[in-house]
Specification:
Distance between the termini: 17 Å
Number of domains: 1
Shape: globular
Length: 120
Amino acid sequence: MPRAAVICGLLLVLVGAIGYGYGLVEGSASFTALIPAGFGVILLILGFLSEKKENLRKTLMHTAVLVAFIGFLVPLLRILSNIGNFTFNFAASMLIAMTLICLVFVILGVKSFVEARRKS
């Protein structure tokens, strides 16, 4: 599970960097494009810490799944609130990418928690 947090964190940092870089090229850079990177950095930190601190792994991974769940809900709600006049553009693709990456991590986390509960 910590490795999944690191991988998803790296993917979110990449999404944020690409989004911000695209904005720089287009002349419309906004710091909001870095929001996925912020979530990614948090997941990276939690993933690395849980690899090093075995006694805190459970708490850190639950926290990581909570962060990813928020990272799933926020862009999803933004997409759904604009569904009437939704246009698929670069910004929308970044929202969708963040939503999907976070959703995958939440699913992996819940699956891992269920399996750990069954083993104990």
